[in-house]
Amino acid sequence: METTSMAKLVIITGMSGAGKTIAVQSLEDLGFFCVDNLPPVLIPKFAELIEQSNGKIGKVALVIDLRGREFFTALSESLNYIKDHFTIDYEIVFLDATDAVLVQRYKESRRRHPLAPDGMPLTGIQLERKLLEDLKGWATQVLDTSNIKPAQLKERIVARFTNLDQQTLSINVTSFGFKYGIPIDADLIFDVRFLPNPHYVEALRPHTGQDTDVYDYVMKWPETQAFLTKLVDMLQFLMPQYRKEGKSQVVIGIGCTGGKHRSVAIAEYLGRIIGASETEAVRVSHRDAERDRH
Q: Taking a C-beta distance cutoff of 8 angstroms, is the pair 260, 293 a contact?
């Protein structure tokens, strides 16, 4: 049975404590029919219900927690069955956070980790991360909630799923400092530590790559221009390929030592260039630019 428009199925999964509850509540606010902790083996039955509803159930979100290998196998088989037998578009949103952040959240909430009810939270977190490793690779979108507040997570979910019919590719360019760690939700990482560093220019050191003097300093070098020519050419090739494969979001990480000068300037440049050439919305953010600012 064919529906007049393709139904949308969103599977919310990921690390315990990474924000799955907030994500599903956000989708519920957008009119999604939400089911928590549905066994993966029942997904085909649910898909059948969606198609038989004749469009009355058009947007569905399922929260799935995988606790063992048998659940992973059941999910794989169920998704393949949907792909072969139904006109339902699905995607997997994986929520993640660093071990340190997850441990802190468990301490603050005084909850026990479901995989280590009688032990240390870190033990359960590490076991869960190992179990979910393959599933994270399947995800169409990975959201790192380590450094964002619940309201910001809701904002990202709402922005992604508000206009589903447009099927847009969301492009996020974020600068970061390698000394603070690589963003775990980045699809592409580019290291710009080879560029001349404004940190060693006393007048520029207190400012960020968003300031005109720092931006101009980073951009004036021949190696910067050569790098940007090659990088933009590659990104303009990749974005249509991601779009064709149905990817919903691409996160581009630009890193320098502290995430304050070079990476910020390059991210700002990419945001303008990609935004001018792509039909999708481009968002630029700077994770570490304000750290230790004098």
A: yes
Token digits for 216? 């101009």
Starting at the edge strand found earlier in the chain, the sheet holding 33-36 runs: 33-36, 59-63, 7-14, 88-96, 141-144
Tokens of 293: 């600012």
Return the pLDDT at 220: 96
pLDDT digits (tens, 9 = 90+) for 16-25: 889 898 998 8
% the chain with pLDDT above 90: 31
End-to-end CA separation in angstroms for the chain: 63
Asked if 146 and 101 touch (Cβ cutoff 8 Å), the reply is yes
Tokens of 136: 């994270």
Q: What angle do CA 98, 104, 110 make, to 5 degrees?
A: 135
Q: Tokens 């050419």 — which residue?
A: 233
Angle 77-80-81 from CA coordinates, rounded to 5°: 85
- Determine the pLDDT at residue 269: 95
d(CA 291, CA 176): 10
CA 42/CA 112 separation, integer angstroms:
28
The DSSP call for residue 40 is G
d(CA 57, CA 54): 8
Element at 13 (helix H, strand E): strand 7-14
pTM of the model: 0.59
CB contact at 8 A, 154 and 220: no
> Which pLDDT tens digit goes with each residue over 72-115?
778 888 888 888 877 777 888 999 999 899 888 888 877 778 77
